[in-house]
Input
Amino acid sequence: MAEIKSSEITPESVYLSRRKFMVGLGVAAAGAALVAACGPQRKEAENTLRVTPTADRTGPAGLAEPPAVPGSPTATPTPTPRPVQAEAPEALTPYEDIISYNNFYEFSTDKEAVSRLAQGFKTSPWTVTIGGLVNKPLTLGIEDILKRYPQEERIYRLRCVEGWSMVIPWLGFPLANLLKEADPLSAARYVRFETLFDPEQMPGQRMKFFPWPYVEGLRLDEAMHDLTILSTGLYGKTLLPQNGAPLRLVVPWKYGFKSIKSLVKIELVEEQPVSLWMAMAPDEYGFYANVNPDVPHPRWSQASERRIGELGRRRTLPFNGYAEQVAHLYAGMDLRQNY
Ligand code: MTE
Output
């Protein structure tokens, strides 16, 4: 099984050689074989993203009874964390776990219900627009995207803000390739991303207290960074709906909520975009959302994480282990203020 060291970033030479190695091994089969041995331990209560707004927004609640928020009288108490593991080698998370334990609120707030509810989600035809402050607006079908941008494998950690993590072999291509083609104007400072809005197909979008559609944003230099990819697959297979088919963002040094799924719109803008989570709970989720073990979430510590498929907890690494590659983007910034 392929392993990545905790300090490793998968530079191109490494992931390309690993890709060859994994193709030889038959990664999908290797992942499937691991499932029985180490499926997710789902018994523990997880921290959860806030599902009731703290922002001053009113409107009819779509759910009769929103799920309990940790810290509220009805919530399950957060368990005492198990001891943090020493730097153990990192293995790929089994395929079965990656496709069955998902955050995709457009379908459900229940991670284990998402894959079932997303079955049959129509990902073809699918069009993505790239516009705003660009010289060359683009409207691309997913087939054009697959043809135009060679797919490569990137093995990245995914660290959810809730305190769990996975190691995922994504297929995709640098977002920069697409942005360069659209040719941003000099006034463009940020990139705004939007997920499909289709409550007919996505039952979670009938929950009225979320400010749908799901929106995320990056600063232009973050978006142009080579680690930032648009993904179309994982484990050598086409992306499934629960993982954000047919096209999602992956930004490995940020909390998972920045990696927006099922993209339909990419816009170059001047002002910092307001993400769905910033609108929902501005005191809990900021624009930057860089993985930072030193800045606790207001309701839990971010110092350690539960790697899906493992028993103990791992230390959470600054920038999710990608500091060498990205820390310079934030030189001179107070990362406590810019959480
Ligand atoms: N994108 C959309 N559109 N809707 C979501 O609810 N959840 C985010 C992110 N992207 C989410 C989303 C969160 S909180 C995480 S941790 C990751 O997707 C989970 O990705 P995965 O289910 O593929 O592991």
